[in-house]
Automatic annotation (TrEMBL):
InterPro entries for this protein: Alkaline_phosphatase_core_sf, Metalloenzyme, Pglycerate_mutase_ApgM
Name of the featured protein: 2,3-bisphosphoglycerate-independent phosphoglycerate mutase, archaeal type
Sorted UniProt keywords: Glycolysis
Cited function: Catalyzes the interconversion of 2-phosphoglycerate and 3-phosphoglycerate.
Amino acid sequence: MIDFDRYTPLLQDGGRILLLVVDGLGGYPEADRGSELEDAHTPNLDALAARGITGLTEPAGPGITVGSGPGHLALFGYDPWRYDLGRGVLAAVGTGFPLQPGDVAARGNLAFLNDDSLVSDRRAGRISDDRAAPLTERVQQRLDADPPVAGVEVFLRHVSEHRVLLVLRGEGLDARLADMDPQDTGLAPLQARPLGSADARTASVVDAVDAAVRAALAEESDEASPDVALFRGFDGLREMPDFGERTGLRAAAIASYPMYRGVAQLVGMEVLHGPDGPPSSMADQIALARAARDTHDFLFVHYKYADAAGHDGNREAKVEALERLDVDLPALLEAADADVVVVSGDHASPAAVSGHSWHPVPTLLAGGSAGVDDVTTFGERACAGGLLGLRPTEHLLPLALGAAGRLAKYGA
């Protein structure tokens, strides 16, 4: 665990840092082929690896599969075991929902059920924003007209595509609830269940809300409409140590998806938007990076598409997503004009497992006083031989601070 209280007296001015997070970057080689990253044509990532040092990182320890929340917190230098945040809170903050102390928030997936009431598609065919947003509004109207639980306000908001946000507001609610999403097809949605010593009342409230949401969705005339919202990541609002105070950095976040804007905002980063709102493409992100380089000395840029393809089990799409990023990389590096560049991922998302996995994540650190190693390609097996070695993800930020000259000498 990194104790940033030890770093605070050493902080000093130094170079600018770019952290490029390729969501779901990692995978694993197989007997007859490489990982998606190894098989992708990525000359620009390879060149960046060749002028820096490389390694493999583990967000929460050997063998542990993490969600995106703890994976990003580790990249920001936070112990993911100590500061884990549920997806509900991250989605709420990322979408600008006015979450209050005592609220219970959860992320939900609109999903299809088969005739046996088992999950047949956890993402409702990746329903479009144009369909999902008005659908969510209609469900909210039905919940308002017929509240499922007396004394509890229910807020259902569209986040992006199949993703929705659920917030419950009322006296005595307890956010310590297990996920209701079975995380796979062919299984039944789970009932709400209290964790540890949590009061069972909140679980019964969530079950009533779940039933009401299903009933509201059933009123839709479109046969292709979702059947259920699978809720997970229950949590409540809490305060986090400020990133800027811990690091001395003026940090900005550039992310298309609300959840990643949420985790950045919760740790005190400024979340950047363009004139039309959050960035919707890498071109938008590059423009924001260029505009921010004179006002911020730390840029967090998030790239989602490799992870989405991994979740879909689509190996070819993940390879293509990595190759598209590689094409855009020179423009991003020019726009950010950073002295030190870190490229890593929050977790692995191999297409072979159609989701997150425990596998270590390829990582590179280039610029400043980082130095170079013998690695000339960016991939799992190549990075395994790099000077960074195999290390906890939360070590990356202090290493970047050191490479950027932002840590003074300790001791005489």
